[in-house]
């Protein structure tokens, strides 16, 4: 179980995530949303195993339910009136379905981003954009790395304080609060200093200067080429189909849209092929690996 | 110069996007009707720098012609009405429009409020602002003053009034309507024909509308706005505000008068005629445009 998709060239990885994120953000067709959610869920579980599964169930599911319930409480548009709320506004079927669709979209995008963070490491991002937008790409990669780094350093500081009996778990309530504030102040100082140090260090190495090259281990080989072509084909086909109304769906005032005609179905299949591509590649590589292993 | 190239390009791109957004917006029907068509015509000569005495507006009544429009450029061509339906406004047109909107031009038939009369009737008007607690201007002579819904006492005595809901203006401007909603508009524009309906003493226009729409299974959404102490009708029959251009929405009139306060504060009387109409042009197309410009 290792992710061979992340060993592809960063361009392929980045294009893949751009496409799936864009499609799950902009296509409100129920089938597309379902496919996107399925793919995001599968890939996140493949990448992180049980951790992702428990995270999805513990946080994503309640979030889905709350978001789906909030919409009909404030939005009363729609042609099918189910009943009337206490204040006199109607409760409509369309507002409920739209709420569910919007909630699914939200958690799908969050799920995709959790995969993105696992696959697109900061060195890949800086490799892609270090030349074009050096300052911004450094800031972005630092910002994306900030929370995990902060957490790790927090543990270090907390352990050190524990050794001298000044952790948040030592002493009475007031004492604990005092220790907590102290640790927090240490952390803030550390993160500010660390940011400046990183900036200085990058500058002293000549980061972003014209004519300067950076070491990278990425090579664009044949399998990257075929993967890129596949992504471009799928993306282009879906975008063209969406522009031609092949994924048309409306929620208000009544639900209506394309369903099971051959053309939309081909678009759904294309969406599925695009979304599931990394998992398919990984499974194929796993099989190959096992076959080679058993052959030895 | 070379090191700033990126920054200059970024700034240029941002300015282009803002300019495009500025010219893109401003879409609503009624830009080419009479009161607008002759406004630029009056200032078309190049000598428009003189303080404009152009009150050549047939629909405005007793409006002081204090409308200096120095920023009007001579290039403001009076475009042929009808030919520019799908086009956005140019900057000159927008300036003109702002001047004509900001001016003291109410619809024909809209009377100025009388502070003296309203005070006598018991409306509590703040001297410094000239409005009451809920930002309502004085009502014209002979019209009922607002009754706060929390103070209204609803009794069992039943009366009748006439209620109707119409959207003729949408039928006229169907091109401007949100494409998904065209199927909702009845051909004659009548959503709820004029019908005698029962109300109970002390009830407001809003109470009657809510009950009748519920009874007839017509969709209606409202929102309570504490600032004006009234319900605001966002949509009837799934036709919402802003669905037919950016100046559109629902308005109501009672006995031919568009009250200058919310429908929850209008207490009904026997035989009142309540009409809900959809406007695509801030009330001008239904005769309810109310201007509070300086006197």
Word description of this protein:
The complex is a heterodimer of chains A (296) and B (295). With 296 residues, chain A is mainly α. In chain A, 72% of the residues lie in helices and 4% in strands. A two-stranded antiparallel ribbon of chain A has the order 1-2. In chain A, helix 3 packs antiparallel against helix 4. The two termini of chain A are 20 Å apart. The mean pLDDT of chain A is 91. The longest helix of chain B is centred in the N-terminal third of the chain and has 20 residues, at 5-24. In chain B, strand 3 and strand 4 form a beta hairpin. Chain B has 295 residues and is an alpha+beta fold. The radius of gyration of chain B is 22 Å and the shape is globular. Chain A binds chain B through residues 76-79, 81, 84, 87-90, 92, 250, 252-253, and chain B through 180-181, 184, 210, 214, 217, 219-222, 224, 235, 238, 240.
Quaternary state reads heterodimer
Based on CA atoms alone, the radius of gyration of chain A comes out at 24 Å
Low-confidence stretches of chain B: 34-86
Largest interface: A-B, 14 and 14 residues
Backbone structural class of chain A: mainly alpha
Q: Give the integer mean of the pLDDT values of chain B.
A: 78
Largest sheet of chain A, in brief, is: 2 strands, antiparallel
Question: What is the CA-atom radius of gyration of chain B, in angstroms?
Answer: 22 Å
Instruction: State the helix count of chain A.
Output: 9
Distance between the termini of chain B: 55 Å
Count all strands of chain B and give the number: 7
Q: Detail the poorly predicted runs of chain A.
A: none
Fraction of residues in H or I helices of chain B: 10-25%
H-E string of chain A: HHHEEHHHHHEEH
Write the layout of secondary structure elements.
The complex is a heterodimer of chains A (296) and B (295).
Chain A: H1 10-26, H2 30-48, H3 50-74, E1 81-84, E2 90-92, H4 93-119, H5 122-129, H6 134-163, H7 173-204, H8 222-243, E3 249-250, E4 256-257, H9 262-295
Antiparallel strand pairs in A: 1-2, 3-4
Helix pairs in contact in A: 1-4, 1-8, 2-3, 2-4, 2-9, 3-4, 5-6, 6-7, 8-9
Chain B: H1 5-24, H2 34-42, H3 91-102, H4 115-121, E1 158-166, H5 168-172, E2 190-200, H6 205-215, E3 220-225, E4 230-236, E5 239-240, E6 249-254, E7 273-279
Parallel strand pairs in B: 1-7
Antiparallel strand pairs in B: 1-2, 3-4, 4-5, 6-7
């Amino acid at each position: 179980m290792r992710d061979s998709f992340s060993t592809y060239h960063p361009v392929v990885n980045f294009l893949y995530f751009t496409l799936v994120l864009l499609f799950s953000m902009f296509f409100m067709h129920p089938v597309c949303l379902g496919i996107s959610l399925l793919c995001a869920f599968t890939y996140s579980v493949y990448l992180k195993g049980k951790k992702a599964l428990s995270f999805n169930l513990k946080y994503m599911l309640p979030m889905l339910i709350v978001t789906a319930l909030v919409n009909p409480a404030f939005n009363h548009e729609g042609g099918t009136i189910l009943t009337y709320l206490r204040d006199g506004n109607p409760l409509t079927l369309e507002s409920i379905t739209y709420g569910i669709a919007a909630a699914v979209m939200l958690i799908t995008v969050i799920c995709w981003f959790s995969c993105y963070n696992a696959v697109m490491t900061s060195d890949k991002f800086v490799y892609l954009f270090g030349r074009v937008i050096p300052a911004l790409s450094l800031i972005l990669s630092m910002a994306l790395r900030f929370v995990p780094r902060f957490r790790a350093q927090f543990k270090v500081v907390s352990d050190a304080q524990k050794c001298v009996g000044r952790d948040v778990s030592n002493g009475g309530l007031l004492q604990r609060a005092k220790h907590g504030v102290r640790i927090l102040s240490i952390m803030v100082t550390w993160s500010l200093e660390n940011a400046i140090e990183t900036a200085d260090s990058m500058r002293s190495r000549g980061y972003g200067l014209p004519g300067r090259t950076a070491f990278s281990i990425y090579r664009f080989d044949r399998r990257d080429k075929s993967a890129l072509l596949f992504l471009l084909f799928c993306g282009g086909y879906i975008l063209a189909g969406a522009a031609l109304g092949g994924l048309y769906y409306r929620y208000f005032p009544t639900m209506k849209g394309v369903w099971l005609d051959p053309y939309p179905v081909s678009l759904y299949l294309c969406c599925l092929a695009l979304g599931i591509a990394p998992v398919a590649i990984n499974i194929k590589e796993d099989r190959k690996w096992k076959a080679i292993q058993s052959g030895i | 110069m070379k090191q700033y190239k990126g920054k200059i390009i970024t700034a240029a791109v941002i300015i282009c996007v803002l300019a495009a957004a500025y010219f893109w917006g401003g879409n609503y029907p009624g830009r080419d009707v009479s009161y607008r068509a002759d406004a630029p015509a009056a200032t078309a000569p190049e000598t428009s720098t003189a303080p404009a005495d152009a009150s050549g507006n047939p629909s405005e009544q007793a409006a002081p012609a204090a409308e200096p429009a120095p920023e009007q450029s001579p290039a403001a061509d009076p475009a042929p009405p009808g030919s520019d339906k799908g086009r956005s406004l140019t900057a000159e047109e927008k300036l003109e429009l702002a001047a004509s909107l900001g001016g003291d031009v109410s619809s024909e038939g809209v009377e100025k409020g009388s502070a003296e009369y309203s005070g006598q009737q018991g409306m509590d008007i703040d001297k410094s602002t000239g409005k009451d607690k809920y930002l309502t201007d004085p009502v014209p002579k002979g019209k009922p003053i607002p009754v706060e819904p929390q103070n209204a006492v609803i009794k069992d005595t039943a009366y009748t009034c006439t209620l109707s809901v119409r959207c003729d203006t949408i039928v006229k401007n169907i091109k401007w309507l949100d494409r998904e909603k065209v199927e909702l508009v009845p051909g004659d524009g009548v959503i709820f024909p004029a019908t005698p309906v029962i109300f109970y003493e002390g009830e407001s226009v809003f109470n009657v509308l809510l009950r009748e729409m519920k009874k007839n299974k017509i969709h209606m959404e409202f929102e309570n706005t504490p600032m004006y102490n009234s319900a605001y009708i966002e949509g009837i029959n799934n036709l919402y505000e802003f669905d037919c251009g950016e100046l559109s929405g629902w308005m109501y009139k009672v006995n031919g008068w568009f009250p200058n306060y919310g429908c929850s504060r209008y207490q009904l009387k026997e035989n009142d005629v309540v009409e809900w109409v959809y406007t695509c042009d801030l009330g001008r197309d239904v005769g309810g445009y109310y201007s509070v410009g300086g006197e």
